[in-house]
Every structure is written in C-alpha cells, then in structure tokens.
Amino acid sequence: MAGHADRVFAGARRIGALTLLALCGACGTVSDPAGYSAVTQDLFDFMDCRDIKGNYDGLVGREKTLADLAAKAETSASGVIVSYAAYRSELTMTRAKLVAVNRAAQKNNCDLSKKPATPPAPAPATAASPRRSNR
Q1: Average pLDDT, rounded, for the chain
Q2: Domain ranges of the chain
Q3: CB 90, CB 29: distance < 8 Å
Q4: Cβ pair 97, 39 in contact under 8 A
Q5: Cα–Cα distance for residue pair 90/62, rounded to 1 Å
Q6: Following CA atoms 32, 38, 39, 40 in sequence, which dihedral angle do they give, to the nearest 10 degrees?
Q7: Of 46, 54, 50, nearest to 107 (Cα)?
Q8: Other C-beta atoms within 10 Å of 82: how many?
Q9: Angle at Cα 94 formed by Cα 24 and Cα 105, nearest 5°?
Q10: Is 36 in a helix, a strand, or coil?
Q11: Which of 35, 42, 67, 73 lies 20 to 30 Å from 87, alpha-carbon distance?
C-alpha cells in the first residue's frame, strides 16, 4: 500500500513539474518588450522635434537616475527586493517611453543627437556706485 501512494505522489510531482515548465515556457515566448503595452505608443507622434527632444532629454536623465538608484539598492543584502519594489517598474516604464520617443523622432525625422541650444550668457553686472562713508 505504501508503494502505491509513493507512485501516485511521484506521478503528481511529474505532472506538477511539467505544468510549471509549460507555464514558464509560455511566459518566455511573449514577444512584447517590457512596458510596451503600458505606454501609449503614439504619445510623442504628434509633437514637434523640439518637444520630442525635450522629452527625450528628460527621459534619458530619469533613466540614468533610476538605474543608479536601482544599482545602489542592489548592493545591500536585501537590496534586490527593494530595487524591484521601488525602482524597476518605473525604470521599465521610462525605457518603454524612450522607445516610443525614439520611434516618434524617427517618424518625424528629428535628430536627437543635437545638443540643446545654450541660453545666452547673462549680461555682466554694472559697477555699483561707490558707497559714501558716514563720517
């Protein structure tokens, strides 16, 4: 009788393992890039190149900040959990928005490599009138 129960449990373990393998394999074949379905893909399509470039620069800065924060969090003992809980979802969204910005820039023939125009230097301060001494 004990032999029969062992065979039943062994069969159940095999079926469970095969089911888990099939489910994990199905998730691995999803062709959607991370965050693609959560970001509106035409969000940047109707902007002019100046606005696209501004959004691109902001997203690149945000991606760098989040990547640095995630890397810093992962250095501690439980940092991977903190990193994924706090930063990875926003980092994934930011990267998906960067893909959308790049697509819009390509569609609108925008050059994202140009540096933004530097604002003119402030005018030199005029010399203040000398102070009068109180004698």
Answers
A1: 76
A2: 36-107
A3: no
A4: yes
A5: 10
A6: 100
A7: 46
A8: 17
A9: 115
A10: coil
A11: 42
